[in-house]
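Q: My labmate handed me this sequence with no annotations at all. I'd like to see what the chain might look like in three dimensions before we decide whether it's worth expressing. Could you predict it?
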Amino acid sequence: MAVVRSLGQRPVTGSEEDPRVAELRTAVSRLRRELAAHPAEFPDRAIAEDELAALAAMAAGGVPEIPRLRRSLLLIAGAIGSVSALTRGLTEVCKAVELFGEPPRGRREFDGRA
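A: Here is what I predict for the chain of 114 residues:
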């Protein structure tokens, strides 16, 4: 699937779905599965699960609110950022959120390190 990185571009003809939303839904679904399969318990797991559920609901509802997307991403990153087995999935969710607009100036790209 091609990913639309420009806010000015529209979904492919014949498709009503915004490709950014599809990318977000896919990334969130993947990370939710990885988190569910991860055997270790950690203190903020419930926060990560709740925020991933919120992101999934936003993606299901169409184009989500960007501030809410970013807030959820920060909470998820804080909750599971130190779990190395989930780094790849977290990075994909981060990239999907970034499709909705440029990050604020001064924000460092998430690279999986604390």
